[in-house]
Specification:
The protein is α+β, with helices and mostly antiparallel strands and 130 residues long. It contains three helices and six strands. It has one domain: Nuclear Transport Factor 2, Chain: A, CATH 3.10.450. The chain is globular and about 40 Å long.
């Protein structure tokens, strides 16, 4: 794996997230992939289970209400680290609701992710005390 390959995978990840297209989501992950929404979580295991977790009613973002940008910052063999941000809008074209800063730790098998762990934190709103 190299940075350019990870960046291409991240572009596919964002597109799959925005579309919730089942095949696009499943093509990102190995059949036995482990996905952690938080580092302390037990993993969601398998591409089918990952897709199911993405499309739970409380998890789906309405079209036009999310934007994301991630980039690979480190690769070591089949392991990679990416950082970026996810912006959530009140409505399509509406005001920003929340911005999260993200860090992803991943391992790959070929061009599919075998292990994915999210770290994210809400960015303070402008003008708020930190």
């Amino acid at each position: 794996m190299d940075r350019a390959s990870v960046d291409k995978w991240l572009e596919r990840y964002i597109a799959a997230w925005k579309s919730y297209d089942e095949s696009a989501v499943k093509e990102l992950f190995t059949a036995d992939a482990e996905y952690r929404f938080h580092p302390w979580d037990e993993p969601t295991v398998g591409a089918d289970a990952i897709y199911s977790a993405w499309v739970e009613p409380d998890s789906i973002d309405k079209p036009g209400t999310i934007e994301a940008s991630y980039r690979c910052v480190a690769v070591d063999g089949d392991r990679a680290v990416a950082i970026g941000d996810s912006t959530y809008y009140e409505s399509p074209g509406g005001p920003v609701r929340t911005i999260y800063d993200n860090c992803f730790v991943m391992s790959f098998e070929g061009d599919r992710c075998k292990s994915f762990t999210e770290w994210f934190m809400e960015r303070p709103k402008e003008g708020s005390a930190t």
